[in-house]
Amino acid sequence: MDRRVSLATRSVRVLIPDQLPTLFEPQKSVMTPHVRARVVGDEDDAAPPERRLTMLALQLAVLEKAASRLGTLGFIWATVVLLGGFAITLGQTDFWCITTLLLVEGARILGRSHELEWQHETTGRAPVSWAVGRVFHWLQLLSASSCAALSLVRLVHQRYGGSEEARVNRHSALDIFYGLALAEALLFLVEKALWQWRVDHHLLLERVASDCHLATACGAVAVRRFFYDSYSRCLNGSIFDGLHMDLVSYADDLLTAGSHDEQRLGASILAALVESDRFADATLRKIGTSGPAIERLIEMLSWKNASEKDVRRSAAVVVFMLTGRKVNALRVTGIPGAMESVASLLYADLDELNLLGLSILNKLARDHDHDNCDKIGKTRGLLDRIISYSGIVANGPAAGPPTDMRLKAVKQSLRVVKRLASTTGTTGKLLRRELSDIVFTVSNVREVLQQQHDEKDVSELHRLAIEILTNLAMDEEAREMIGGTGGVLSTLVAMFLPEKQEAAPDRHKDAVRVEAGEALAMLALDSRRNCGAIIMAFGGGVERLVEALSDPVVVVSAARILRNLCTYAGDEWQLTPRGVTAGATKVLRSIMVEKTKLLNISLGLAAQMLRFMQPGELRASLATAGVTNAALARTLVLVLREYSRPSLEVPHIRLYTLELAIALMRSDARFVALFVELGMEAEQRRVAETTSGLECFNVFSGSVGLSRRAVSVGSLVDSATELMRQHACGTLQSQSHRYAEK
Q: What are the ranges of the ARM repeats (predicted)?
């Protein structure tokens, strides 16, 4: 259960903020090969365990065929030479011995064929059936033993009777016949002894079943039938026919061409093999290329009979493992009705099947596969059913803590929803709209966020829930709906800046804090109502956010939230200048020393902070930070020079730099002269010539821009250029006046 259902969880790392990927930067689609981790060892080149069965079947078949050929030769010799040529001269004793041997041997051969058929048909059935097989077994042993004893006695006695002349050829003919009969009987007894020694004494079938992870009642039946079929093929055709058999191909044949019971047996064999680290790769490679087998497995997922739960589970396990490879996942979803069959697992009255169904959907939705995600979204009632498993409180708010199985179901449900919500392009936009339209989506996520049990498990649940909110919030209507759901914003704020800080670093909680910060930044984007609610959740001000600018774990998120609050909150919230500008020194210092993402958001935040600062406050902040006007102006020019083209990693850095430059020039005219002296106008022209759609959007879904910015880079370049020209005109006029006065 652990291997097939417990998917590999995303590793939790304390990432440097500059390296943390977010939705505020575009992501290029990269084709990466899917490589399954394997442990290379001696077992990789070893023969599969069932090879021991096929080798035994070969050995037994050689003995059986040799005995049969000797029996055939003896029968021909007796009928043609002895009874045909010497019938009149044979003694009475030899006549009846020959007749008895022929009848007994004929009966043994007939019984042997029926014994094999009976063993094959009754494998795994009631002990009344097993007893019949044992009767056939002992009858053959008795007949072979009697034939061997009778032949040996006649050979030892050598009393064939008749005259000396009559005994010349007849004596040799009888010796040959009895010798053939004895050899045949002995070969058969050797075969039986080998069978008993390897199968019964050394428990070969049980050991092979254990090695193949089939050490169950059903698995034992499967291994025994495989052995009997291999032996039958060696007998009925070439002795090497059974040697080429393997359990995977055998299970494939049972699935596609067998009866209902044989299909169940085939599914159980495949389930056991794919759950084994040793055999999973080879099994999946073979089954992945068998279209009929995959179709039958998909069909089994929708079997509804109560007695078919086990086979349904086996089929679900195999399909789950198959979908771990993208090529196989495409084959699965290409089968008509496949998604409906997978969806049927979510309606089963067995928790394990529900969990397997969610796990399969999670695999199908991986890598944001547009086709699969689109099929999931279009399957009737499937999204609602997936969301229903995300409710962590199953029996109302008064219920006790959720069970382990419930937590697993919630986790898998959140994983599926997260992957659907993060799908890019038009498909992702439609899926996010459909998910947010389901009235239980956000409320279920809120319940998950409010859980405070086992730290490790709850941290992963919290991260998944927060990532869902962040992705859904890319849609403007969903953003407002999430913000209007009671308790969501306050819970995110509490997670982002908890009242009680841990003494020792906790990477799980730090990861949750970072995710919560990104969610708050997304919810504050272009939403005046959400900005107001976030400010109230922080206690009616932004002082705590300003303090968080000194926290290396969440500094980027804190700066992004604070910038969005300053940009979109509106004048009615009366953000206090002291509260906003208290962090100006830290932000200005970051502009001078930081790189990439932290530099990017510091530039954007500084531009918004200047709206709340008087020229004197700006000069004081620069002095406290140890930054001169010239150094700051030079840094901004160098940023534009370094980013001569739009950057995927920091797509807004040029825009934020221009915003800050304009704010500085409007706040203090001395910055205009500095920018002119440092060649800012030439850098602005270069920026204007290299603008792209990358800089026109606030957030990105993959490579698709969302939430178009109201002010473009080009208009900012025009504004900055106009300020410089006005300053130049003012300078010329001032010089003209002074000249005129002189």
A: 443-487, 540-565
